[in-house]
Amino acid sequence: MRMPLSVLTAAGLGLTALGLGTVPASAASAATAPAPYAAYNGSSEEAAANRAFFEAVLKSAAEKRAANPTSAAAVTVVYDASRAPTFATQIARSTQIWNSSVSNVRLQAGTSGADFAYYEGNDSRGSYASTDGHGGGYIFLDYRQNQTYNSTRVTAHETGHVLGLPDHYTGPCSELMSGGGPGPSCTNAYPNSTERSRVNQLWANGFAAALDKAEKALQKSAR
Fold it and tell me: Per the record, GO CC terms (predicted)?
């Protein structure tokens, strides 16, 4: 996506590793007066990077669960929102929306052992989700874009990538992952039934496979 609700960095999957305690380079070097956002057209590179972000978060959650088995049905994904204080309300609302919409995964705030983090700042590319390629990732929330578009929708949309959903800009406003496609007048921040079902499927079936790999890796390292 080029400067819409979900933008992946120009480096694509070859990003420099970023820890949760490091400000993304995009936030540190972004211009203070971004150019107007380009058309929402997406790209195969962005789609691949969104998928990589989901897989990184999935792997992180699976490794923690394999190390500390729990009987809880839902998988807990921990996020660190301490570096995006301006959007504390939107992040909390996005979390509430997703936690009330799906049953196989649950988002939880925390600064210790976070699976991904939120950051804020100015970036001409807008808001985006990204991965460092090493089991970590972050969501960047752009100031200007969040003033143009409904901020809760932006945040919930980006969080949708964490849960495994791709962009679909040609969709209607009722589809959360249509992002900025329907225009600034769209304020819907809720996933539709298809999106909710897809997330539940991913975290039921996809997580089982990731957990199996994590358990095998732990067993191998313990030998």
Answer: extracellular region
Report the C-alpha gap between 216 and 102 in whole angstroms. Answer: 28
User: Which residues line the annotated binding site for Zn(2+)?
Assistant: 157, 161, 167
- Residue ranges for the binding site for Ca(2+)? 152
Range of the domain at 61: 47-68+207-221
Backbone angles phi, psi at 18, to 5 degrees: -125, 125
Q: Could you count the other beta carbons within 10 Å of the beta carbon of residue 29?
A: 11
| Residues forming the active site | 158
134 and 59 fall within a common domain: no
pLDDT tens-digit map of 101-141: 999 999 999 988 899 999 999 998 889 888 765 556 899 99
Do 89 and 180 belong together in one domain? Answer: yes
Task: Say whether pTM exceeds 0.85.
Answer: no
The CATH number given to whatever domain includes residue 144 is 3.40.390.10
